[in-house]
Amino acid sequence: ASTLGASAAEKGRYYGTAIAAGRMGDSTYMTIANREFNMITAENEMKMDATEPSQGRFTFTNGDRIVNWALSNGKRVRGHTLAWHAQQPGWMQSMSGSALRNALINHVTQVASYYRGKVYAWDVVNEAFADDGRGSRRDSNLQRTGNDWIEAAFRAARAADPNAKLCYNDYNTDNWSHAKTQGVYNMVKDFKARGVPIDCVGFQAHFNSGNPVPSNYHTTLQNFADLGVDVQITELDIEGSGSSQAQQYQGVVQACLAVSRCTGITVWGVRDTDSWRASGTPLLFDGSGNKKAAYTSVLNALNAG
Ligand code: G3I
């Protein structure tokens, strides 16, 4: 096929992008997004600070703009994210203990209930592991409510939207030999053994020269899939340019296609100028909306074989 989404669909996968509500008036951006992608993640608009700016008062205006545009154009939605140490509203940042735990569970319940039936997969918990080389949990106000906060969030999400796939999502978990990868793997294994409802693991995949696409990526994805979960590349971007960048993008497609439970890939933005990174050229379209070499390598890899 001739677009990323249609080519991925022929392989039983999706190819998605993050969308920012503030850019939805940009016709170049929206034309590319609508043409190329069939899975949509709100870049910021469904996070905790956006959806519950004051306690118990929920706002879904910007999330709805993105979700309704996606669904009315035949695309699916990844919900991002119900529970995270970052981008918490101010009132939540200063909470602790059982009050915070109750507020977290209420947030998960209210947001997942509001979007029930509209979300293919939720990043229920985002970035809960540390980069300490030991595979530990990250310290945060949520972690200090008790080590079971993650499973409590997953159980609340399942109760609120029984048909959404429930994912754990993190970064620096791509290389199988990293301690953080092993920490997440052991948590998922434990959740599956104890019947905690988890359906998928998201690999953010923010790559750069110091953290390139690992040669063992396929191994990582397969080992997680073998635990009985789907795996997804959820926030892909790769610093660099030209053929080196294109080859790495191709490698990510090949790793996903090699794992039957790798259900899709999402890039974290449309054009280089839409990226969260302050500088650089990490995406598939240049600032003018032209297809880069990386785009062509992704399309060819999706259509190969
Ligand atoms: O909306 C305000 C605007 O009103 C204000 O004038 C402006 C000035 O700073 O800030 C705007 O908010 C910014 C927001 O993006 C929207 O542009 C925040 O400051 C900024 O911190 C926020 O950055 C987002 C970041 O998450 C926050 O943690 C990025 O857009 C977003 O791409 C990024 O996404 C994360 C994923 O959720 C999780 N994984 C890592 C990934 C990249 O950091």
Q: What are the low-pLDDT stretches, counting only 5+ consecutive residues below 50?
A: none
* Strand order in the sheet with the most strands: 1-2-3-4-5-6-8-9
Bound molecules: ligand G3I
Contiguous helical run count: 11
> For the terminal residues, how far apart are their CA atoms?
13 Å
> How many runs of DSSP E, i.e. beta strands?
9
Percent range of helical residues = 25-40%
Shape: globular
Catalytic activity: Endohydrolysis of (1->4)-beta-D-xylosidic linkages in xylans
Organism: Cellulomonas fimi
GO molecular function, one term: endo-1,4-beta-xylanase activity
Enzyme class: hydrolase
Which helices and strands occur, and which strands form pairs?
Blueprint: H1 4-10, E1 14-19, H2 27-36, E2 39-42, H3 48-51, H4 61-72, E3 76-84, H5 90-93, H6 97-114, E4 121-126, H7 149-160, E5 165-170, H8 179-194, E6 200-203, E7 206-207, H9 217-225, E8 230-238, H10 242-257, E9 262-267, H11 293-303
Parallel strand pairs: 1-2, 1-9, 2-3, 3-4, 4-5, 5-6, 6-8, 7-8, 8-9
This protein binds ligand G3I.
